[in-house]
Amino acid sequence: NAGVTQTPKFRVLKTGQSMTLLCAQDMNHEYMYWYRQDPGMGLRLIHYSVGEGTTAKGEVPDGYNVSRLKKQNFLLGLESAAPSQTSVYFCASAAVAGGPHTQYFGPGTRLTVL
Amino acid sequence: AQSVAQPEDQVNVAEGNPLTVKCTYSVSGNPYLFWYVQYPNRGLQFLLKYITGDNLVKGSYGFEAEFNKSQTSFHLKKPSALVSDSALYFCAVRVLQGNQGGKLIFGQGTELSVKP
Q1: How far apart (Å, rounded) are the C-alpha atoms in residues B54 and B69?
Q2: Of B15, B20, B24, B3, which is closest to residue B115 (Cα–Cα)?
Q3: Which terminus of chain A is less hemmed in, N or C, by CB atoms within 10 Å?
Q4: Rounded CA separation B55/B10 (Å)
Q5: In which band, very low, low, confident or very high, does the pLDDT at B98 lie, cut at 50, 70 and 90?
Q6: B43, A107: Cβ pair inside 8 Å?
Q7: Are A36 and A21 in contact, with CB atoms under 8 Å apart?
């Protein structure tokens, strides 16, 4: 099993450009999450999904959109990138069964917006 | 509101000495608590979790954590530190209200440095 994978690993954008980050998991997990990590701030939840076709806002959703058309994929979109969105983005997934939903993380995408 | 605090930005330990990384939480009800580790340029790796039962939880790589309800703490411990334990450690608590999709609230992280 590959676990949770993220594409791309690195990206540099200019202000105003758009892009989509792809997260894929092969563990048949129902829940998926997008976080951003900034120095000294821990991880902050952007959006999450409790199942195929459903999404919900997290702590810092502004400027981002998401879609979960397939159970194994969770896409994060930036429609018009801003320098404040320079960050490391992590995707995670969790199973419903078996208790308090341990989250498993991807390797991250480092995004720089100039 | 639920929250997690890691009071130390950095912890320095000599190899072979015991280590403790502190975490305190604020929740209403019984908490579900987690520790994750992040090595440089990597994603977070699950170390251990507390759900219920024994207050001492054992996890990966020789780490353990002690749940203390009266002090609302969940400190991470290891009896003998290794240089390879040097990493960023995150404590997290699960959001309990409604169908929150198993959301976690993370502390800001503690950088552990183990010197030879």
Answers
A1: 12
A2: B15
A3: N
A4: 25
A5: low
A6: yes
A7: no
Contact A9, A33 (CB under 8 A): no
Q: Which amino acid is at A54?
A: T
Which token pair is B68? Answer: 């203390």
- The residue of A7, A31, A41, A43 whose CB has the most chain B CBs within 10 angstroms, and thus the best one to mutate to test that interface, is A43
Cβ contact (<8 Å) for A104 and B34? no
Nearest to B43 among A90, A94, A96 (CB): A90
Closest chain B residue by Cα to residue A101: B102
Bridge partners of A92, per DSSP, are: A33, A105
Token digits of residue A80? 């018009």
Mean of per-residue pLDDT scores for chain A:
93
Q: What is the pLDDT of residue B31?
A: 86
- How does B29-48 read in b/e, with b if 16+ C-beta sit within 10 Å? eebbbbbbbbeeeebbebbb
Is the pLDDT assigned to residue B33 strictly greater than 70? yes
Nearest to B88 by CA among B25, B44, B26: B44
Considering only the beta carbons, identify the residue of A48, A96, A108 that sits closest to B103.
Answer: A48
pLDDT at A42 over 90: no
